[in-house]
């Protein structure tokens, strides 16, 4: 018998080993082997099933199998099902995302251009009276900014700001409520259109990343009706990563730079499998965006957004590289100063309690006041004549990227084809003074304007400031070398527009801590002739800025205190050796399952923590979860409410009438399910299972129920919100 049992055990173990070996055969195979292996397994399972009846034709197909055209009807229905199932494919989703975002971008640009044209029309129509011109110039943007701030605050306050800091947090796995909803999408689009239509130094690149992410989230919810795989959280994160690329791609018509910029800005670790999604959606979106411009007769064909015409045979001389390096280093310091100034403005407004309290009551006063100040300073007949105040951001970039030299030739009849260049000409000052005043004024104006509680970004204003700084250096070089730098008896004049391109890429890269701004500049201008100077300047600017300040988005994350762990900057690498035990708080207040009311009150009074850890007991210290402080207060008020006490007294009277009990004790039960006489308790988000531990009844020396401590009520009855739990027995002593 022993041998037989031993043999049986040996055969079972061999069978288990064979089964385990068979299960591990499929691992380590190539794709072709896996395919054949799956087919063999399917055939083997079909043979094992034997003579199982074949599935009947679905009942919805029975009505189509009768009549002359039965095969056609069945084929049409099957094609319909096939198309509906294919709606859930990635490429269809990405095409829809790119198409919607291109339409949104084009419609917003059209509305913004209309608003700016209306302001110019009002300003030009009142040229007989300077006072009326000033009132129109100031009132128009103030009304638009005030409407944008009020509309956003009422509909969805989450739409305020850039949106890239929130997307960085969401892509890290943190759930931010109401940031990817339809009402936030509507508030962001309308608020951003009004904010940019006012002419304030604000950008659209950051908000468009947020808008594309919201569009992707809404499309996922819609397409989940056709396939449940869109409810997968990992898949939604991948689609959000692709949407961030679409936002930049349709904003600047720069798909390659958009993908790289979205990777640098939003992702710490990027899955390579999302590469094709981002490029496909961004390319399709940029294509539709430019096709719409051709359809609206804004362009003759699909061209770059800010087309430049620099010479290609000799774009720059090697002796100009030190000047480009100076632009990069200076832009690094300027970018760090911009981030520092923006953060200090926000902190100053928050630390001044009187100002903060006043602005909290008058929420629309701060944006209106900032808009009034900036509009007054940019008024063209006033101080704006020294800083090209009448130009929009697009016109400013077009003039700064011009390939002519202003300092040598001035503003002559040669520039009639670009009449907007007259804004840089002033009879009582030269172009250098105008550029310096423009850079200094726009610098602090942009840092102040980006703190307004409206949907806005900071990339485009910084881009314009960098272009102006590069233009200033280029004009200075052209003035120092009027005939260009001589090389082998050939004279090539200096092109200041190339310096403007380098400065724009360097300063925007320094503020955002990205290198992909170089690629965005190449796609914006349509020329790659200055690739070497641009890369040198962008890398130097990043090296300087990263050593001084965090990026603008990380700075906003710190200001908003979002749950995001930023990267360590230069000079802080020794902090990689810091352990958790070095920074954790050891003397922490906690709640146990056996905690009495007195202990719970003591914990609530002794700490101000928003979440309290829940452990099994003080001896084991096994963490069971956590509970919010507000939920503890709500549960206590529900358990110890006057209605609950009245119910307890009624049960006591009924028990005295129905049973003869001694004067020493009375037993009653409190059910965890809310009775009809007591108010409904607020349900916990994730209630703990009541089977963790059964709390014994309180000792005989505990105080009465009506006393101050109420120690007879165990904490378990507070945390167990499941209606199926057994009633917890509590002893009260009369």
Automatic annotation (TrEMBL):
Catalytic function, reaction form: thiocyanate(in) = thiocyanate(out)
InterPro entries per UniProt: CBS_dom_sf, Cl-channel-2, Cl-channel_core, Cl_channel_volt-gated, ClC
Subcellular location, principal: membrane
Cellular localization per UniProt: Basolateral cell membrane; Cell projection, Axon; Cell projection, Dendritic spine membrane
Keywords annotated in UniProt: CBS domain, Cell membrane, Cell projection, Chloride, Chloride channel, Ion channel, Ion transport, Membrane, Phosphoprotein, Postsynaptic cell membrane, Repeat, Synapse, Transmembrane, Transmembrane helix, Transport, Voltage-gated channel
UniProt-listed Gene3D superfamilies: CBS-domain, Clc chloride channel
Protein's name in the database: Chloride channel protein 2
């Amino acid at each position: 018998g022993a041998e037989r049992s031993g043999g049986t055990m040996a055969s079972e173990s061999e069978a288990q080993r064979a089964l385990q070996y068979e299960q591990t055969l499929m691992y380590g195979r190539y794709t072709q082997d896996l395919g054949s292996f799956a087919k063999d397994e399917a055939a083997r399972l079909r043979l094992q099933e034997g003579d199982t009846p074949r599935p009947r034709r679905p009942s919805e197909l029975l009505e189509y199998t009768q009549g002359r055209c039965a095969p056609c009807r069945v084929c049409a229905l099957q094609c319909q099902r096939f198309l509906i199932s294919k709606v859930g494919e990635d490429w269809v989703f990405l095409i829809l995302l790119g198409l919607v975002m291109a339409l949104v971008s084009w419609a917003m640009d059209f509305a913004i251009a209309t608003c700016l044209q209306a302001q110019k029309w009002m300003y030009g129509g009142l040229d007989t009276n300077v006072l009326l011109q000033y009132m129109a110039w100031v009132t128009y943007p103030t009304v638009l900014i005030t409407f944008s701030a009020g509309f956003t605050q009422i509909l969805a306050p989450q739409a305020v700001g850039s949106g890239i800091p929130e997307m960085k947090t969401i892509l890290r796995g943190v759930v931010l409520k109401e940031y990817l909803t339809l009402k936030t999408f509507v508030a962001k689009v309308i608020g951003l259109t009004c904010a940019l239509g006012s002419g304030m130094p604000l950008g659209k690149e950051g908000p468009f990343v947020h808008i594309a992410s919201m569009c992707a989230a809404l499309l996922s919810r819609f397409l989940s009706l056709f396939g449940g795989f869109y409810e997968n959280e990992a898949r939604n994160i991948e689609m959000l990563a692709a949407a961030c690329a679409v936002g930049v791609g349709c904003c600047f018509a720069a798909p390659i730079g958009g993908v790289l910029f979205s990777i640098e800005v939003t992702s710490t670790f990027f899955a390579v499998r999302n590469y094709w999604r981002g490029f496909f959606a961004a390319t399709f979106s940029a294509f539709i965006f430019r096709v719409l411009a051709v359809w609206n007769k804004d362009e003759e064909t699909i061209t770059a957004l800010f087309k430049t015409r620099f010479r290609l045979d000799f774009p720059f001389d090697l002796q100009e590289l030190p000047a480009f390096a100076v632009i990069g280093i200076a832009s690094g310091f300027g970018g760090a100063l911009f981030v520092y100034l923006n953060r200090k403005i926000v902190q100053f407004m928050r630390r001044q309690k009187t100002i903060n309290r006043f602005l909290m009551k008058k929420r629309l006063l701060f944006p209106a006041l900032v808009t009034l100040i900036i509009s007054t300073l940019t008024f063209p007949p006033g101080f704006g004549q020294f800083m090209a105040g009448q130009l929009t951001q697009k016109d400013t970039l077009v003039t700064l990227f011009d390939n002519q030299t202003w300092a040598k030739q001035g503003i002559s009849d040669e520039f009639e084809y670009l009449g907007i260049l007259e804004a840089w000409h002033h009879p009582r000052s030269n172009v250098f003074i105008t550029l310096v005043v423009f850079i200094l004024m726009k610098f602090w104006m942009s840092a102040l304007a980006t703190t307004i509680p409206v949907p806005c970004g900071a990339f485009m204003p910084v881009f314009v400031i960098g272009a102006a700084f590069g233009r200033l250096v280029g004009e200075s070089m052209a003035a120092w070398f009027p005939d260009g730098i001589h090389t082998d008896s050939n004279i090539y004049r200096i092109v200041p527009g190339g310096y403007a391109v380098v400065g724009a890429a360097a300063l925007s890269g320094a503020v955002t801590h990205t290198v992909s701004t170089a690629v965005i500049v190449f796609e914006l201008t349509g020329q790659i002739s200055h690739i070497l100077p641009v890369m040198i300047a962008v890398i130097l600017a990043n090296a300087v800025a990263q050593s001084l300040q965090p990026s603008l988005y990380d700075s906003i994350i710190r200001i908003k205190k979002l749950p995001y762990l930023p990267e360590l900057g230069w000079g802080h690498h020794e902090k990689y050796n810091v352990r958790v035990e070095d920074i954790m708080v050891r003397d922490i207040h906690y709640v146990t399952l056996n905690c009495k009311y007195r202990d719970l009150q003591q914990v609530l009074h002794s700490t101000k923590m928003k979440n309290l850890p829940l452990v099994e007991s003080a001896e084991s210290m096994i963490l069971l979860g956590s509970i919010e402080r507000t939920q503890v207060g709500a549960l206590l008020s529900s358990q110890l409410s006057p209605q609950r006490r009245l119910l307890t007294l009624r049960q006591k009277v009924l028990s005295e009438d129905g049973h003869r009990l001694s004067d020493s004790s009375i037993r009653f039960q409190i059910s965890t399910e809310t009775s009809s006489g007591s108010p409904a308790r607020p349900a916990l988000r994730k209630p703990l299972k009541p089977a963790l531990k059964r709390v014994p009844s309180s000792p005989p020396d505990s105080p009465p129920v009506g006393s101050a401590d109420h120690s007879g009520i165990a904490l378990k009855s507070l945390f167990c919100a499941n209606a199926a739990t057994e009633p917890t027995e509590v002893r009260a002593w009369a």
